[in-house]
Design a protein that fits this description.
This protein is α/β, with parallel strands linked by helices. The protein contains eleven helices and twelve strands. It is 41% helix and 14% strand. Bound molecules: pyridoxal-5'-phosphate (PLP).
């Protein structure tokens, strides 16, 4: 089995699982309980939050734990829109976003908010000139992914953030799900930032929203204050500790993992360039972890099935999109519906081996020859 779908999910790391198991036994008490076991759990939670906050150079009170990136994106977008709706009802996003960003945007459109989509340049990066044209005094939120999940394009977050800061009513939300642990993250101009553990060899069901202190949100989940008034519910200390471990490991390996994956990505690009019916969609602004291609005259789902029959697992698009519909990011980039309907996403990891890449390229060739007949 060769797994090349790491942008969708990653296998949990043993060390992370060990932390989870141990913490589940040690800190089973509710951190909000008034007795000694509760107080011990609370002290551990506070220490862990301090450490996670330090990794992102933010304040501990700026971390809101959630069940993952989908919840964080919903909380950020709907929470800002509802809280600041009196200042304006204009929102801006891109066609590159994950469904957990476009979903809340569509929901808000139905509630009377106006949503604009900023153009992207041929390299997949946001067209800053178009963003300048779209920004208004009643724009309350811009939501753009640090790295999108289909093309893997890395945005100029600081440049975009600096521009947004000239609009005092406007906040900047960044979905950093595909960037955290893979790139150095700079939160200077970011007001709200999403990430999740399961993309970085952590467990499912835990993520966070970083929300700068001065910002308010209408909560999505109401209840007791618990650790934060913005998200009720007993915090899962074991999951939080396990996410800290996943973050530590990802940050420690960040540059060496990047270099290793870059070499694999380069090799795949070089080899695939020889196939006349393969079009590379990820530009040189994409991170090496994601390589998106289109197949001319070959049904991508047939290709995916053929690869799977030979033990190779990749996806056609982001895992959370509707099957057999065009890829929105590729459509926005190329304005070519056929090309957007025939995408394959190869996503790599530091766990990928040279042997796996070699086999993948051989199997790719076999499938290509068979399906081109
Ligand atoms: N945002 C991006 C960019 C993603 O790639 C994903 C996962 O595919 C999500 C959000 C949703 O993450 P989660 O599964 O943690 O809700």
């Amino acid at each position: 089995m060769i797994y090349l779908d790491y942008a969708a999910d990653s296998p949990v790391c043993d060390e992370v699982l060990e932390v989870f198991t141990k913490a589940s036994h040690t800190y089973f008490a509710n951190p909000n309980a008034n007795h000694i076991l509760g107080k011990e759990a609370k002290a551990c939670l506070e220490k862990t939050t301090d450490e996670i906050a330090a990794m992102f150079k933010v304040k501990p009170q700026e971390i809101i734990y959630t069940s993952g990136a989908t919840e964080s994106n919903n909380l950020a977008i709907k929470g800002v829109a509802e809280h600041y709706g009196r200042k304006g009802k204009h929102l801006i996003t891109t066609y590159l976003e994950h469904s957990s960003v476009t979903g809340p945007m569509s929901y808000l459109q139905e509630k009377g908010y106006e949503v604009d989509f900023v153009d992207i340049l041929p390299n997949g990066q946001v067209d800053i000139e178009h963003l300048k044209e779209l920004l208004r005094t009643d724009t309350i939120l811009v939501s753009i992914a640090y790295v999108d999940s289909e093309l893997g394009v890395r945005q100029n977050i600081n440049q975009i953030g600096e521009l947004i800061k000239t609009y005092p009513n406007c906040l900047f939300h960044v979905d950093a799900t595909q960037a955290v642990g893979k790139l150095p993250i700079d939160t200077t101009y970011i007001d709200l930032m999403t990430f999740t553990a399961h993309k970085i060899y952590g467990l499912h069901g835990i993520g966070a929203l970083i929300k700068k202190e001065k910002i308010f949100l209408t909560p999505s989940i109401h209840g007791g204050v618990s650790t934060t008034p913005f998200r009720s519910g007993t915090p899962s200390l074991a999951l939080i500790l396990s996410m800290k471990k996943a973050l530590e490991l990802a940050f420690a390996g960040e540059s060496s993992h990047y270099e290793k994956v870059q070499a694999f990505n380069q090799l795949i690009r070089e080899k695939l360039a020889h196939y006349p019916n393969v079009l590379i969609n990820s530009s040189d602004k994409a991170v090496p972890y994601i390589l998106n291609i289109s197949l001319k005259g070959i049904k991508a789902s047939d290709f995916q099935v053929k690869l799977a029959e030979k033990g190779i697992y990749i996806s056609t698009k982001s895992a959370c999109t509707t099957p057999n519909t065009p890829s929105r990011p590729v459509m926005a980039l190329t304005r070519d519906r056929k090309r957007a309907l025939s995408t394959l996403r190869i996503s790599l990891s530091h766990l990928t081996t040279s042997e796996e890449i070699k086999t993948f390229l051989e199997v790719f060739d076999t499938c290509y020859q068979e399906l081109s007949k």
